Amino acid sequence: MSQAAVFDQLVVGEVVAERELLLTRDSLVRYAGASGDFNPIHYRDDFAQSVGLPGVLAHGMLTMGVAGSVATEWLGAAGWVQDFQSRFTRPVPVDAQAGAAITVTATVGALDSEARTARIDLKVVFDGSTVLGKAQLVAAFA
Amino acid sequence: MVNPDIQGRVYPETAPYLVGREKVREFARAVQSESPLHFDPAAARAAGFSDVIAPPTFAVTVQESTLAQLLADDEAGVDFSRVVHGDQRFSYSRPIVAGDELTATLTITAVKQLRGHSMVTASSEIVDESGAHVVTAISTLVVRGEDAA
């Protein structure tokens, strides 16, 4: 486990959290229910293929959400998330049996010592490629 | 093609969304978070919040009813089967907490045409029961054109 976040000890460029996660069809169904996004491209291969996709894809918001979780688990009670943004640059196909293994790396991107905010840059990699663009979260510390 | 005249359109405020503690827990599990602030009211209170706080992307569940307004607007001409989520941003004044009753107001801030696709920027301002700002959720939806690659 990483140490609890302490603002005054943060250094730009430092990796503060790294985690490998598995997205399975189970994860997609669970996220569909939790979020209310029931687009069938996230649970039906036949439907996904009928609209020109290789098969079922993870929700972009699920990928963004799990990346955010890596950062908020590191942050703990030391602060709260003021801003979180991402571009959805590449789809994540989720194999029915193997799922999709993704790695999330959280790096300190910038610090504002007056506002006591830290920008955390999130890199999400699937199958050797980055799937989110400009995934940045701003944490406000007490 | 999306109707460019919807740029600047403001939709009616949505019905209040009551944030339930179990819904926050369900969402936190779905995004594979193990932070106690999403699960344990005592831990959340110790951190200065009145109840469990929602993960930062939770606002999408409240925003969803505003995007439904856009999709249901015949004048907008957004074909849902051609929509791809381009980007997303959440800007918070404070975290969402279980017990919040939230309403959202959608404004279409931009409609652009690019290489046969339409890019619609939808900004949903979400406020609590006192009217105080909680979060603004901004989505760019890419609506693929019929002739575009």
From TrEMBL, chain A:
Pfam families, per the entry: MaoC_dehydratas
SUPFAM superfamilies tied to this protein: Thioesterase/thiol ester dehydrase-isomerase (SSF54637)
* N-terminal signal peptide: none
Q: Which GO terms describe its molecular function?
A: fatty acid synthase activity
- InterPro entries referenced in this protein's UniProt entry, alphabetically: Fatty_acid_synthase (IPR003965), HotDog_dom_sf (IPR029069), MaoC-like_dom (IPR002539)
* Family matches, as Gene3D superfamilies: Hotdog Thioesterase
Q: Name one GO cellular component term.
A: fatty acid synthase complex
Domain spans labelled MaoC-like: 14-106
Gene Ontology biological process terms from the UniProt entry: fatty acid biosynthetic process
Q: Which family does it belong to?
A: Belongs to the enoyl-CoA hydratase/isomerase family.
Under PANTHER family, the record lists:
(3R)-HYDROXYACYL-ACP DEHYDRATASE SUBUNIT HADB (PTHR43841:SF3), 3-HYDROXYACYL-THIOESTER DEHYDRATASE HTDX-RELATED (PTHR43841)
**What name is this protein filed under?**
Acyl dehydratase
* Taxonomic source organism: Leucobacter insecticola
Automatic annotation (TrEMBL), chain B:
Which Pfam families does the record cross-reference, listed alphabetically? FAS1_DH_region
Q: Where is the FAS1-like dehydratase domain?
A: 8-136
Q: Which family does it belong to?
A: Belongs to the UPF0336 family.
Listed InterPro entries: FAS1-like_DH_region (IPR039569), HadA-like (IPR016709), HotDog_dom_sf (IPR029069), UPF0336/Enoyl-CoA_hydratase (IPR050965)
Q: Which organism is it from?
A: Leucobacter insecticola
The GO terms this record gives for MF are: (3R)-hydroxyacyl-[acyl-carrier-protein] dehydratase activity
Q: Which PANTHER family match?
A: HYDROXYACYL-THIOESTER DEHYDRATASE TYPE 2, MITOCHONDRIAL, HYDROXYACYL-THIOESTER DEHYDRATASE TYPE 2, MITOCHONDRIAL-RELATED
Checking Gene3D superfamilies in the record gives: Hotdog Thioesterase (3.10.129.10)
Q: Name one GO biological process term.
A: fatty acid biosynthetic process
User: What is the name listed in the Swiss-Prot or TrEMBL entry for this protein?
Assistant: UPF0336 protein G7067_04205
